[in-house]
């Protein structure tokens, strides 16, 4: 059995600018094919626009609300929503609420900085 607790996992700032806690990652915990992290975005803050070449992500909003760029779409997200982000899709999230935005992020294959490419907003049109 592999078990972790968010109470004991140290947070760090990831490549997109969000603060995350890697709750489960193959390189740290020995699970096989995916990673799970809790991310937080302070009120009024926005993560950097980015994409992953091979990783599929699922965001699940634990608390708060925000506006998410997902490819060419902008969508409002709130507590209880789950969003699938296909590989190669530019995305970011802005916390539009007054409290911290908290979400779970599941990545398959597991998250890596090397698979994360930071983009400029005008690059969305270039990847249609």
Automatic annotation (TrEMBL):
It comes from the Archaea. It holds the Pfam family Cupin_2. InterPro entries: Cupin_2, PKS_Associated_Protein, RmlC-like_jellyroll, RmlC_Cupin_sf. SUPFAM superfamilies: RmlC-like cupins. Residues 39-105 form the Cupin type-2 domain. This is Cupin domain-containing protein.
